[in-house]
Amino acid sequence: MLDLTCGLLPVIAVIGIFFFVAAVRIVPQYKEGVLLTFGRYTRDIKPGLNIIIPIVHTLLTVDKRITTVDIPKQEVMTKDNVPVMVNAVVYFRVHNTKDAILEIQNYTYAVAQYAQTALRDVIGRIDLDTLLTERESIASDIKKLVDEETDKWGVDITAIKIQDVELPTDMKRAMARQAEAEREKRATIILSSGELEASENLRKAAENLAKSSGGMHLRTLQTLSDVSADQSNTLVFVTPIEVLRAIEGVDISKFLGKKEAPKKNPKK
To answer: 183 is in which domain, residue-wise?
Structure first.
């Protein structure tokens, strides 16, 4: 009998160590879990050291950190019938451990699939211009739809970001032509506004020079000085209009020494 007892002691010790190791569960800080007793929910398990009864209890844990799920690039038809390739990324975290384990089989896959469906639905209700200019608003609408559905799964959607919108090649060329025409329009408007302002200033300057005696002559001399600074330029002397008007009233024959012919008396 003593020999039999001595032979069972190592076996009992091994079994005891096995049960002890199986009973001690350490849950990391970034995880939480639920305890099932014969398959039925008992209570939540917090991070730290936890003791369970092997075979009787089952411990299931989930990651409480923010998880990133990529929505693959897919073709979506906008409201104005333009096919675009869109991809996005979803950020979410588990806020209710019990629901994430007991209410949904694979919450990560479910979130990805529902976000993909919501993305197609939202973009299908807007036109291309809205899609290109209001990404933040569209992402907010998608987040609202997904968050309402996944809340009962114990999942909280932190953010949804639209990463890339790829347009057809023909549409890119058309938009490039439209942008170029818009830039030319703005350039023409700016140029015409500059010419109008310059003409107004020139008109005012001409009026001021006309009011001042000899102002036009001084301006002409200044222009000649500016032109003569470059040796390659041909200098053309411009006579002020005031000088020409003064010459019109002068009798040139007096300076040439010619006498005016006597007038014949009319026959009586």
So the answer is: 174-200
Phi and psi of 137, rounded to 5°? -65, -40
Q: pLDDT digits over 92-131, tens only?
A: 999 999 999 998 989 999 999 999 999 999 999 999 888 8
Examine the fold and report which residue of 152, 167, 182 is the final residue of a domain before the chain moves on. 167
Please tell me the distance from the alpha carbon of residue 152 to that of residue 156, in angstroms, as a whole number: 9
Residues 77/122, Cβ–Cβ less than 8 Å: no
Answer yes or no: do 71 and 158 share one domain.
Answer: yes
Q: How far is CA 5 from the centre of its chain?
A: 79
Distances (CA, A) of 12 to 17, 19, 22: 9, 10, 15
Total domains in the chain come to 3
230: helix, coil or strand?
coil
Specify the amino acid at residue 63.
D
**Residue 104 has what DSSP assignment?**
-
Q: What is the pLDDT of residues 153-181, one digit of tens each?
A: 999 999 999 988 888 888 778 777 888 88
